[in-house]
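User: Hello, beginner here. Can you help me understand these amino acid letters and fold codes? It all follows right here:
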Amino acid sequence: MSKAVDLGIAAISITAERELEMDFSQPMFDAGLQIVTPVQTSRTALVKTILANLFSAGGLPYILGVAIILVVIAHLVWLLERHHPTGMLARLEYYPGIFEACWWAASTLATQADQMPRAALARVVAVVWMFASVVFIAYFTAAVTSNLTLQQLHGDISGPADLPGKRVGVRSYSVTTGAWIRGILADDYGVDLSRIQWVTFEEPHVAEFRDPPNVERAPAGKDINAMLLAGELDAAIVGAVPSDPKLKPVIRDPEAAAKKWREKHHAIQLNHLVGVKDTVSRAAADEVYALLLASKEAAGDPPMLPHGLEANRRNLEVAVDCAYKQKMIPRRFTVEELFE
């Protein structure tokens, strides 16, 4: 950190604080970067679940159907009850008599109405409606209960498709790891990144970069993991496999997803590179390169550490494409332009 040396090759762990001052090469181990979400739900989430059931593609037609049947029953009761001398309807006119009939039908559906029809045929209709109400309420209660049970077991987010409309934490929007995760969400799972509210904890790592409108800064002193567990975030991009049982990965099988991604793109997700300035002599550059090769061999020759420009050409092309699709760069640069 004192800048007494130009390059360090040692067991220097990668931390957020050090990344502000230094660039790191590809690590010698898989850190398990992934996006996670809490398993348990908050009370607010439970309310959201109930409302989501009410206005879902399956729930809304059901509610509208019951409402139509309720209005039909109310009209039948009004027609049959209005001429009874001691009927339950206080008014014989259609308005507001029909509203009294609708109130009776709704009360019978929800609990039990205070009055019952007096006309014989109206009572038959009322009995049929009471039995139908039991079925309607039982079905609705079972549907909501099953969804709440699943919500408690799997959390608010069961997969990438649930992320739009949620608050997702990331260290910095322009950080490489966050860009890769967003690229996977968009390309492999069809997630609309603009519909996610991103919450960052650091300034952009590139001075010229400006965060998009759907990015906000977390309050000073806030911790990403603490906000996640407190329900202030719905999900977060973290740098290690979570050991907390209250957290789970959004992508259920991250290792299988990573393998599928590599097979699809024929590349790896570059994070850090070692480069040498053109002011450094060729001999010094070759010496640094030789040391890096030696360190790779000493580490057991891990396959995820390609050396040299050509070995990384495809990796760099995929990285450029990922950044361009997220509008982090103005155009797709060629590999050669990266080193001009």
User: Anything to note?
Assistant: The longest helix spans residues 120-154.
